[in-house]
Amino acid sequence: MPGNRAVFNDAIRKGHNAAWDKQWKKAVEEYRRALAEFPDDLSVRASLAHALEESGQWESAMHEYRHLAQVQPRDPVPWVHVAALQEKMRRPAEAAGTLMQLAELYVAHQLTTKAVEAWRKASKLEPERSDAHLRLAEVYTQGAQHAAAAKEYLALARIFRRREDKAKALQWTHQALKADPRNEEARDLLEELEHGDLTVAVSPPGPVEQAEKVALSRLADTLLEQEAGSREDEEQQRSTARPRISQEEIDALIARAVDAQMRRRVGDAIESYRRLLAAGVERAEVKFNLGLLYFETMRYDDAIALLSETIHDQNFALASHYALGQCFRGLGRMDEAVEHYMQVVKIVDLGSVRREQADELISVYEGLAESYIAKGDREQAESFSRALEEFLTSRGWEDKVHEVRHHLEALRAEGEQISLAQVLEIPGSDQVLEALALSQECLRRGKFDAASDECLRAIQLAPEYLPAHARLAEILIRQNRMEEACLKYQTLAELCVVRGDLARAETLYRSALKAAPADVTNRSKLIDLLIQRGKHDEALEQYLILGDAYLSTGQIARAAERFTEGMRLAARVGNTSAAAITLRHRLAETRVRQNDFKGALAAYQEIRQQSPADERAHFYMVDLEFRLNQPGAALHDLDALLQQYDARGEGRKSIGVLEALHQSHPTQAELAQRLAQHYAALGERDKAVATLDALGEFQLNAGQKQAAAATIRQILALNPPRVEAYKKLLQEIGA
Question: Domain range spanning residue 257?
Answer without folding.
Answer: 206-224+241-311
